[in-house]
Amino acid sequence: MHKAMQGYIRAIDRMNHVIGRIAMYLIFVLMGVLLWSSVSKTFLTPSIWTLETAQFVMVAYYVLGGPYSIQLGSNVRMDLFYGDWSPRTKAWVDGFTVFFLLFYLVVLFMGAVSSTAYSLGYFGMEPFAFFGDLFMTLITQGFAAANEKLGFLEKSPTAWQPQLWPIKVVLCLGVFLMILQCVAEFFRDLERLRGSEA
């Protein structure tokens, strides 16, 4: 079990490190979109796509970079007491409080999956079954058959009206990666309590 935990920690850390390092460059994409928005509003006809694109890029930046932030320990904490504790005490407290974060993230993930299914035209109560069926259809029958299973695609109610499923998929991916990283942090705390570093 000890080796399996260390392997899990290394694999998740490596994956979230790569994704987080890529996601951090989205800030430049965001700056480019906002710069174009300012230029187009000042000198040209204002672009209707810039505000929502900036929001979508910010969501991707935030949720895909979140697991990397947890990995680095740069997430926000109340350091009033925590900063003075020993590493062992921190591991005990982190190992306990991570369950509250995991509960929140699992509820958020379930809501994100349900919202993503809704954005693809599924209005039932079993979004995971919908995605399982969609995935199996895609694998066995191809893209055209899977496309027939989709309903009315949800669009933003703005003038630009982009489809919302891509950013909702990014949200699901980001929250899922955050759950994986929180489990890795829990295992890391267990390793610290055992007296070894992962």
TrEMBL record:
<keyword id="KW-0997">Cell inner membrane</keyword>
<comment type="similarity">
    <text>Belongs to the TRAP transporter small permease family.</text>
</comment>
<dbReference type="InterPro" id="IPR007387">
    <property type="entry name" value="TRAP_DctQ"/>
</dbReference>
<keyword id="KW-0472">Membrane</keyword>
<feature type="transmembrane region" description="Helical">
    <location>
        <begin position="18"/>
        <end position="36"/>
    </location>
</feature>
<comment type="subunit">
    <text>The complex comprises the extracytoplasmic solute receptor protein and the two transmembrane proteins.</text>
</comment>
<dbReference type="Pfam" id="PF04290">
    <property type="entry name" value="DctQ"/>
</dbReference>
<keyword id="KW-0812">Transmembrane</keyword>
<dbReference type="InterPro" id="IPR055348">
    <property type="entry name" value="DctQ"/>
</dbReference>
<feature type="transmembrane region" description="Helical">
    <location>
        <begin position="48"/>
        <end position="70"/>
    </location>
</feature>
<dbReference type="GO" id="GO:0022857">
    <property type="term" value="F:transmembrane transporter activity"/>
</dbReference>
<keyword id="KW-0813">Transport</keyword>
<feature type="domain" description="Tripartite ATP-independent periplasmic transporters DctQ component">
    <location>
        <begin position="30"/>
        <end position="191"/>
    </location>
</feature>
<comment type="function">
    <text>Part of the tripartite ATP-independent periplasmic (TRAP) transport system.</text>
</comment>
<keyword id="KW-1003">Cell membrane</keyword>
<dbReference type="GO" id="GO:0005886">
    <property type="term" value="C:plasma membrane"/>
</dbReference>
<feature type="transmembrane region" description="Helical">
    <location>
        <begin position="167"/>
        <end position="187"/>
    </location>
</feature>
<protein>
    <recommendedName>
        <fullName>TRAP transporter small permease protein</fullName>
    </recommendedName>
</protein>
<keyword id="KW-1133">Transmembrane helix</keyword>
<feature type="transmembrane region" description="Helical">
    <location>
        <begin position="91"/>
        <end position="113"/>
    </location>
</feature>
